[in-house]
Amino acid sequence: MGHYFTLLLLLIICKSLEAWNCTVSCKCTNFTSSCCGPQKTQHLPIIGNQNATELVLDSCGSFPMDNKTLQNFSSLKELTVKRTILLYLDAHPFHGLPMLQTLNLTEVNLSNAAMHQNAFAGLPIRRLFLANNRLDQIRRGMFAGLMNLEHLDLSGNGLRSIEENALANLVSLRFLNLDNNHFVTITPYWFGVMLRNNSFPVVSLIGNTLTCECKYRGMALPEYQWFSRSVILTNSSCMVNPAVEECSPPQVEEVYKVVTVRDLQPLTLSCLLSGFPRPRVSWILPSGLQLFNKSFPPFYNEDGTLHVPVVQSKFAGLYACMATNVEGTAVSLLNIVVSPTPNPPFITSRPVTSPTPQTPTISKSLRVLLWTAVVLICIIFLIILFCILRVACRYLKQHLCNDVSFNRFVDTPNILTLPENPQSIPHIDERHGHVHWSRENGDDTVPRVAEHTDGSYPPHQQTVTELERRTQL
Ligand SMILES: *[C@@H]1O[C@H](CO)[C@@H](O)[C@H](O)[C@H]1NC(C)=O
Ligand SMILES: *[C@@H]1O[C@H](CO)[C@@H](O)[C@H](O)[C@H]1NC(C)=O
Ligand SMILES: *[C@@H]1O[C@H](CO)[C@@H](O)[C@H](O)[C@H]1NC(C)=O
Ligand SMILES: *[C@@H]1O[C@H](CO)[C@@H](O)[C@H](O)[C@H]1NC(C)=O
Ligand SMILES: *[C@@H]1O[C@H](CO)[C@@H](O)[C@H](O)[C@H]1NC(C)=O
Ligand SMILES: *[C@@H]1O[C@H](CO)[C@@H](O)[C@H](O)[C@H]1NC(C)=O
Ligand SMILES: *[C@@H]1O[C@H](CO)[C@@H](O)[C@H](O)[C@H]1NC(C)=O
Ligand SMILES: *[C@@H]1O[C@H](CO)[C@@H](O)[C@H](O)[C@H]1NC(C)=O
Ligand SMILES: *[C@@H]1O[C@H](CO)[C@@H](O)[C@H](O)[C@H]1NC(C)=O
Ligand SMILES: *[C@@H]1O[C@H](CO)[C@@H](O)[C@H](O)[C@H]1NC(C)=O
To answer: May I ask which residue range the UniProt record assigns to the signal sequence (predicted)?
Structure first.
């Protein structure tokens, strides 16, 4: 029993001698705490002490960091994470470190995807090291509210672009390290309008292969002349080249669009975009396959236009058009809906099953119009015929009364001396009408013969030819 008592006493003495409750895997001094090391595992959360000013998380394997990971580090001024993989950096993970001055997260596999938008927002830090990570873009808001930040190291990431105004409120910034990234163009628009006196940040861009394809935006403006002076480059001959057009990032006209296409029809997709230099377009198919400048039958990327010769219903889905140039990337989403083409038997029965209102009315009105036209033409024709007949009748009547109706049948009218030959016609006189009637019928080769009711030919009956012969005599 006494044995136990002395042990407990020893423990209490040891405890009181300790500067603080050091977390299991950490080595703690009065002010610094170095965790992990050979153990390579970190017991979370890491609990500190109000007097600790420095924390080094070295070789801690991999773990996510959120606002509960570091506790009781109210005096911490410097935090370094090294040889460790931060799986995810959640919102405000350093929220409980009001005294933090230096945050060193060099080479911890940070990417845009593995980081909350507000991971650093609002921190009072003066130095932030994010070198050798996997960031590819700096978005607006990522460094919002870092009013005291003087030194920002983003070297050795895969950075291609910084959004305009993304560094606008870093009013204390003195040095920005962007070495060894993938910048192709640069612009002072990153900083927005700088409301400073004469302390402008030095921007180091060594190890970026800047392009000469286009003029860097804003470099020639007088209010941004500080930028041209502050930038450290291996060569800078293309910053302000009046000969070329200003660079501009790709912009798509429609971010999302639904396109309906019929089954078995050809499909051509293009995305309306702007940007200089002219963006290269790749297509991401619903399967996830990305078509760069090549084809994957039946999908053909022909100079930025996606072509499918024959659409099938299984091709429906979300297509993404990705436009990229030196300034950035823009995406347009096209939702392709494939509607089935109705088959022929269905078409024939269509008026019964689903009468579409347009075609019947069109054909009906057309038919009515046609019939009206036909009837009108008939009426006009009849009227004309009637008129001709009337005129002809009147004319004939007039001429027959004057006994010169045979003028027409006489080839040589100057010989015609009908009055000189009166004897041969008297009994024919009454038959004139018959002769004329047959002529009117256009039947002048076959002479018409008037029949008597008893069927016998009248004795005085003469054919027209006979008549003509007589008149010619
Ligand atoms: C913190 O430091 C002060 C003096 O600097 C000391 O009195 C106090 O005991 C320390 N606290 C702990 C938890 O070590
Ligand atoms: C140290 O840890 C023990 C239990 O593990 C706890 O009772 C004690 O309050 C802690 N001391 C400090 C200063 O956090
Ligand atoms: C740690 O603090 C104790 C008193 O709390 C002090 O005696 C000791 O010298 C300090 N150690 C160092 C390295 O500062
Ligand atoms: C920590 O984060 C959680 C959600 O991630 C949130 O609900 C909570 O309020 C945060 N705590 C502090 C102190 O910020
Ligand atoms: C953290 O510190 C507070 C006092 O500042 C104390 O009450 C609390 O127990 C500590 N938490 C841990 C886990 O040691
Ligand atoms: C930050 O940490 C890395 C190791 O991860 C180290 O090489 C570098 O010197 C540190 N930077 C500063 C300013 O302490
Ligand atoms: C680093 O992160 C990337 C994704 O951002 C992941 O694919 C990769 O496996 C990570 N590396 C390690 C060593 O975990
Ligand atoms: C100029 O700089 C000084 C010192 O940094 C600062 O106090 C002052 O407010 C600045 N003036 C303007 C107009 O920004
Ligand atoms: C910069 O210099 C490298 C070689 O040192 C050269 O290949 C490149 O074209 C130059 N770029 C510009 C923009 O002058
Ligand atoms: C696509 O490739 C062809 C040859 O393979 C080339 O002529 C053409 O310029 C390329 N187009 C783009 C936009 O890269």
So the answer is: 1-19
C-alpha of residue 235 to centroid of ligand 9, in Å: 6
Shortest-distance atom of ligand 9 to CA 209: 11
**Residue written as tokens 């000969």?**
243
As for ligand 10, residues whose beta carbon falls within 6 Å of it are: 280, 293
216-275: pLDDT as tens digits: 888 888 888 889 888 988 766 677 777 888 888 899 998 999 999 998 889 999 888 999
Tokens describing residue 298 = 């039946």
Angle at 334 between CA 331 and CA 339, to 5 degrees: 170
The pLDDT of 155-173, averaged and rounded, is 92
Q: How many CA atoms lie within 13 A of 419 on its CB side?
A: 1
30, 31, 54: residue to mutate for ligand 3 pocket, most atoms within 8 A of CB: 30
Topology at the third CATH level for domain 248-339 = Immunoglobulin-like (2.60.40)
Q: Check residue 401 and give its pLDDT.
A: 52
- Where is average pLDDT lowest: 124-128, 184-188, 322-326, 421-425? 421-425
pLDDT digits (tens, 9 = 90+) for 144-160: 999 999 999 999 999 98
**Burial tier of 12 (Cβ tally within 10 Å: 0-12, 13-18, 19+):** exposed
Q: From ligand 9's centre to the CA of 203, what distance in Å?
A: 18
Smallest CA separation from ligand 9 atom 7, residue: 209
Sign of the torsion angle spanned by Cα atoms 38, 41, 42, 43: negative
Ligand 2 atom 3, closest CA: 21
What's the CA gap between 127 and 148, in Å, rounded?
A: 9
Nearest CA to ligand 3 atom 4: 19
The Cα 173–Cα 151 span in angstroms is: 6
Tell me the two tokens of residue 217: 């935006």
CATH architecture, domain 19-232: Alpha-Beta Horseshoe (3.80)
Q: 273-317, pLDDT tens digit by residue?
A: 999 989 999 999 998 888 887 788 888 888 889 999 999 988 999
User: Ligand 2 atom 1: the closest Cα is on which residue?
Assistant: 21
